[in-house]
Specification:
Length: 441
C-alpha cells in the first residue's frame, strides 16, 4: 500500500474545534486541518442559518490576558488553535469594520499620523496619498504619540512611536526618527495585534483604548507582551489597521475581494435563507407558491406582510373578534422578535456590542430605556462615535405612537420606525445601515 505524503496527511487530518456565540452557546465542529477562517465562518453560517453578508468573523479570545482579535480570512483555524490555551476560545461574531478602510481610508488614517501626508507639498490630494496605503509595493509609515507599558512594571510612559514595515519603534529623543534614536518595540512577522479588554482594570492603562502586540509563540507569559494605549478610538484603529496592512499586504485586499459564493472543500451549499431567522420567503400571489430568490424582493414582501398583519389585527378588534394581541399591545411587543432589539441591556453593554461589531457609520441597535420604563433607546455609531437617541411614546387620538423627534414623525411600532430611518436620515446623523445581532449556535 503506497504511503501518504505529509501534505496528503494534512489534507485529510480532522480536528475538533469548539466555538462560542455571543449568547454563550457553544458548538463542537469537526473540520479539516487546512480549513481557513473564512471557510470555517461559511460553515457556521450554513449550520446556524445566518445571512451571509460578508461580516461574520472568527474571534480569538483570551479572557485570562484580556485580549482578542479577529482572525484574518486566510489564516488556518487549526494552526491558530494550537497556539491557544485551555482558557482561550473562539467566538463567532459580526464585524462590519474589518475591510471598511478599503472603502474610505481617510476615516481610518488621520493625516497627522501618516508620514507621507506630513511630507506632501500639497500637489497630490491627501486622499490619494492615503490610498497608497493599500498598495502592497509601498511602505506607509504611521507615527504619533502612544502610551507604552514599561516591561515588568505597572507604569506607562508616553512616547513618540512609528510603525514601519520592519517593525514598531519608539524614539528615545522626543520626536526624532533618526536611526540612532529609534528603539525596537516589536516586529510584525511573528506577532499579531489584539484589542485589550478592560485594560484599565487589568493593566492600569491611562485610557480605555489599549492594544497589545503578542508573539505567536507566547501563550501566557505577560512579560513577552507589548502593551500600548491610544488617546481615542480612531487613533487605536489607525495603529491596528496599519499593523494588519503592513503584515499581510496584498493578502488583505485579496481577502476583501474574494466572493463569498466560492465553493468550499466541505460539501455543503449556501442556504437560501433571506432573513436572520432563516425562514424562506414565499410568494403565494399566483396559482402556485414561489420561492423569492431576490433578497430585496423578499425584504419588501416581509415589510408588506408586517403591515398586513397590523391591519388584520386592528380590523379584528374593531369587529369585536378575539385577537391574539390588541393593537396597542402588539405595538409594544412586536419589536422583541427583531434581531436588532437587545432588550434591557445597560448603556455600557450597548457600547461594548457596537465596538465589538465594528465602529462603522450606521451600525445600530435598539434597547429598553433604563431611565424611562415606557421609552426605548436607539444606539447608533457615526464617525466612530457612539450616540444615543431616546424613543418616546406619544398619544394621538387615543392611539400610542413612537417618536424620536418629539412627535414630529410618529410610528405605530418600532419596526416601522427602524424601516423609516433605514431609508431616511431624518434627525439622525446618518441612516440606519447595519444592525448588531447575536445568534445562537
Amino acid at each position: 500500500m503506497p504511503s501518504c505524503s505529509p501534505d496528503c496527511c494534512l489534507l485529510h487530518a480532522v480536528e475538533v474545534v469548539r466555538v462560542f456565540s455571543e449568547d454563550g452557546t457553544c458548538k463542537m465542529v469537526e473540520i479539516l486541518a487546512d480549513m481557513t477562517a473564512r471557510d470555517f465562518c461559511q460553515l457556521l453560517i450554513y449550520k446556524s442559518h445566518c445571512v451571509d453578508d460578508n461580516s461574520w468573523t472568527l474571534v480569538e479570545h483570551h479572557p485570562h490576558l484580556g485580549l482578542e482579535r479577529c482572525l484574518e480570512d486566510h489564516e488556518l483555524v487549526v494552526q491558530i488553535q494550537s497556539t491557544m490555551t485551555s482558557e482561550s476560545k473562539f467566538l463567532f461574531r459580526k464585524n462590519y469594520a474589518r475591510y471598511e478602510f478599503f472603502k474610505n481610508p481617510v476615516n481610518f488614517f488621520p493625516e497627522q499620523m501618516v508620514a507621507w501626508c506630513q511630507q506632501s507639498d500639497g500637489s497630490i490630494p491627501k486622499s490619494e496619498l492615503l490610498q497608497n496605503l493599500l498598495n502592497v509595493n509601498s511602505c506607509p509609515e504611521i507615527q504619533g504619540s502612544l502610551y507604552v507599558k514599561e516591561a515588568g512594571k505597572k507604569s506607562w510612559k508616553k512616547l513618540f512611536v512609528c510603525l514601519r514595515r520592519s517593525g514598531l519603534y519608539c524614539s528615545t529623543k522626543g520626536t526624532s526618527k533618526e536611526p540612532r534614536h529609534l528603539q525596537g518595540i516589536s516586529d510584525l512577522e511573528d506577532s499579531n495585534i489584539y484589542s485589550l479588554i478592560s485594560c484599565k482594570k487589568l493593566y492600569n492603562s491611562p485610557t480605555d483604548f489599549g492594544f497589545c502586540i503578542k508573539p505567536r509563540k507566547v501563550l501566557t507569559d505577560i512579560k513577552e507582551l507589548r502593551f500600548l494605549c491610544a488617546e481615542d478610538e480612531q487613533t487605536r484603529t489607525c495603529w491596528m489597521t496599519a499593523f494588519r496592512l503592513l503584515k499581510y499586504g496584498m493578502l488583505l485586499y485579496q481577502n476583501y475581494r474574494i466572493p463569498q459564493q466560492k465553493t468550499l472543500h466541505t460539501n455543503f451549499s449556501t442556504p437560501r435563507s433571506v432573513s436572520e431567522n432563516c425562514l424562506v420567503a414565499m410568494d403565494f400571489s399566483g396559482q402556485t407558491g414561489r420561492v423569492i430568490e431576490n433578497p430585496l424582493e423578499a425584504q419588501s414582501a416581509a415589510v408588506e406582510e408586517g403591515h398586513a398583519w397590523r391591519k388584520r389585527s386592528s380590523r379584528m378588534n374593531v369587529l369585536g373578534n378575539q385577537s391574539p394581541l390588541h393593537p396597542s399591545t402588539l405595538s409594544t411587543v412586536i419589536h422583541r422578535t427583531q434581531p436588532w432589539f437587545h432588550g434591557r441591556i445597560p448603556r455600557e453593554e450597548s457600547h461594548k456590542i457596537i465596538r465589538q461589531q465594528g465602529l462603522v457609520d450606521g451600525l445600530f441597535l435598539l434597547r429598553d430605556s433604563q431611565s424611562n420604563p415606557k421609552a426605548f433607546v436607539l444606539t447608533l455609531c457615526h464617525h466612530q462615535k457612539i450616540k444615543h437617541f431616546q424613543i418616546l411614546p406619544c398619544e394621538d387620538d387615543g392611539q400610542t405612537f413612537f417618536s424620536l423627534d418629539d412627535g414630529n414623525t410618529k410610528f405605530t411600532d418600532l419596526i416601522q420606525l427602524v424601516e423609516f430611518y433605514q431609508l431616511n436620515k431624518g434627525v439622525l446623523p446618518c441612516k440606519l445601515k447595519y444592525h448588531c445581532i447575536r445568534v445562537a449556535l
